[in-house]
Design brief:
mainly beta; 14 strands; globular; binds zinc ion; eleven-stranded mixed sheet
């Protein structure tokens, strides 16, 4: 139900002796994503991501849905990253995608969502943060990442910060949706949400990224 792909580019991986390799990026733990975003697939995701947080903006706005998710993990090893995407509409922007990635340095999943060439962010910590999000009990500062080198359409707004030694990426599309960030956002580890999970809406077209 969850299918393996390269975390850095999405190409199908080849499997040899229980390890995986991308034709472009070499050996890598796979990114496991569902064919379709459903509650059952999400339960599987949480099982595969056990011990690693999967963050969602919380509470989700009316009409918003979980449209995509994934975990980077080698079978029998500890997870290296998770991603989730919620999609909805805002009055100003129309359809909006909000992607959240939490990852160990060097994984390259957030950079892919941001369309950056290098797997780790470079501009972090320069100047004041653009926003703070609340994660668990503490605030996490996020800095804007310039995507102008790679993203000619300028269709996304990318922020990144560091929490507990992991990169936390937030990618908003379209870029103008960053105005939604005026209020302090709460990101919640869905693994700890429990019962309300069953009421979360899943489905809809997954974002192209
Ligand atoms: Zn690859």
């Amino acid at each position: 139900m969850l299918r393996p792909g390269c975390p850095r580019c999405g190409l199908p991986l080849t499997e040899t002796d229980a390890s995986w390799a991308c034709p472009e990026h070499g050996p890598t733990p796979p990114l496991w994503r569902p064919q379709e975003s459903t509650y059952d697939a999400f339960v599987r995701h949480l099982g595969a991501a056990a011990g690693f947080p999967t963050y969602l903006p919380w509470p989700m706005g009316p009409g918003w849905r979980v449209t995509d998710f994934g975990v980077v993990v080698q079978e029998g090893s500890v997870p290296r990253a998770t991603m989730s995407c919620v999609s909805g509409t805002s009055v100003l922007d129309g359809p909006v995608d909000v992607l959240v990635v939490s990852e160990e340095p060097g994984t390259g999943l957030g950079a892919r969502a941001a369309r950056l060439a290098s797997p780790d962010p470079r501009d972090i910590g320069e100047g004041p943060p653009v926003v703070k999000v609340r994660l668990g009990h503490g605030p996490v500062s996020l800095w804007a990442v310039s995507t102008s080198d790679a993203d000619e359409e300028f269709d996304r707004y990318v922020m990144v910060g560091e929490a507990a030694g992991r990169w936390l990426w937030l990618v908003l599309r379209p870029a103008s949706a960053m105005l939604l960030m005026r209020d302090e956002w709460i990101l919640r580890d869905v693994a700890e949400v429990g019962a309300p999970l069953i009421e979360m809406p899943f489905g809809g077209p997954p974002p192209a990224w």
